[in-house]
Write a structure and sequence with these properties.
Layout (H helix, E strand, L loop, with lengths): L2 H17 L13 H8 L3 H13 L3 E4 L3 E4 L4 H6 L17 E2 L14 H9 L15 H13 L9 E4 L2 H12 L5 E5 L16 E5 L1 E2 L2 E2 L1 H7 L6 E5 L13 H13 L4 E4 L15 H4 L5 E6 L11 E4 L2 H15 L4 H12 L2 H28 L3 E2 L8 E6 L5 H10 L2 E2 L1 E2 L10 E5 L5 H18 L2
Parallel strand pairs: 3-15, 5-6, 5-9, 9-10, 10-11
Antiparallel strand pairs: 1-2, 4-12, 7-8, 11-12, 13-14, 14-17, 16-17
Helix pairs in contact: 1-3, 2-3, 5-12, 6-12, 7-11, 13-15, 14-15
Family: In the C-terminal section; belongs to the class-I pyridoxal-phosphate-dependent aminotransferase family.
GO molecular function, one term: DNA-binding transcription factor activity
Keywords: Aminotransferase, DNA-binding, Pyridoxal phosphate, Transcription, Transcription regulation, Transferase
Amino acid sequence: MKSKMKSDIVADWIKEQIKLGKWGSAGSKIPSQRVLADQFSVNRSTVVTALELLKKDGIIEGVMGKGTIIANDTWSLLASLPRSKDTQPSHPVETGIIDLSKGELAEDVFPDGYLNDVLARLSGKIHSLGYEERGGYEPLREAVAGYMTRQGTPVTPSSILIVSGAMQGLQLIASGLMERGASVFLEEPSYLYSIHTFQSLGMSLTGIEMDADGLVTADLQSKWRPNHPSALYTIPCFHNPTGIMMSESRRKEVLSFCAAHRLPIIEDDVYRELWLDSPPPPSLKSMDTNSNVLYIGSLSKTLSPGLRIGWVAGAEPVIERLANLKMQADYGTSSLSQRVASEWLEEGLYEHHLEYVRKELLKRRLEASASLERHLSGLAEWRIPNGGFFIWLKLKQDISIKELYTEAVNEGILFHPGSIYTEGTSRSIRLSYGYAGPAQFEEGIRRLKKWIITLSK
């Protein structure tokens, strides 16, 4: 076991003792380094490293003449305690890092000055910024409805709720429409495992197997229970993290099963417009004749994550309820962001922008594919997606992904371990070719190859 890993264990144990009040409250002295080293049969240097971690978190502090004392046994301690499942790893903010983990596009994928032009056009149109209507800025709702209709999913402005990113849409659905104790079915692996939107409200996640056509309907059928509150969450287009596109026939199967069993669907379609080879099949929402689908869209993946503009499309009574909840939560999404988004969508600028982005992303995908073939063809398996920017890499060697992650970070390489996207263990990792440039991607994969080989010996 590495010293770093031992120090984490010691630090976690110390936090647990402080949490339980075993050594008193704030201001109380904790056992000496020698006592802790003897208790864990480790070197004092390991204990010192553990204590430094706790000092950084503000939990303990060294006081001249007293030794090490508990500095905070409330908020700082609670903030540092491990959750039931690790979320996406946090990374140090450093230059020189090759980031293959980010779920967003790099600035150089977008046209030069693409936001400045729109902001300049708006400068003479805005006279004041107040609270918007509950459903959002009306011209933006109209623009979103028009855009979705042009893309094959007919909706009306009154069936649209503007939200502060897709994440808020999920939070509103979870808190406002679902019951405590409900089950949320989802593809496994899935992005939803990496956040705690539903679990934090007393709901459980139930993974559904996937194949090349998307989630397996037969597995959904075997795990569904009658008379138990539940819903299906799915990312049918360029799934996160696998990149899989749900086929049209599978979409129809899923819709049919869910309609027959009154299983509501949350369709997270934020990657839809990042198709690279051909447009995706019709959305689930467009084929839904029973108002069974709540559709989530966003501009974060295609235009600007900083705008924090997303939307939920659904039956009007449902949208009205969600709008009421949102108004209680934040009084509405940023008025300025909504006007910027409206300008993009109303004038047809967004479609033109997407054409440019697809061309740039296509180049990156081609380079990323070549890099993987050069360095990892005998060490891993993967499928190049038809869109989006994620590649799900499954290692052939039985090595510790945690150790690979640690060594990669030490080398300045960031990726997401597959375990954060599933309830179980995983020998896969998620790579993104949307943020790191082709040269960086090549160098990152070259360094990863070195450590995969080293750890498999």
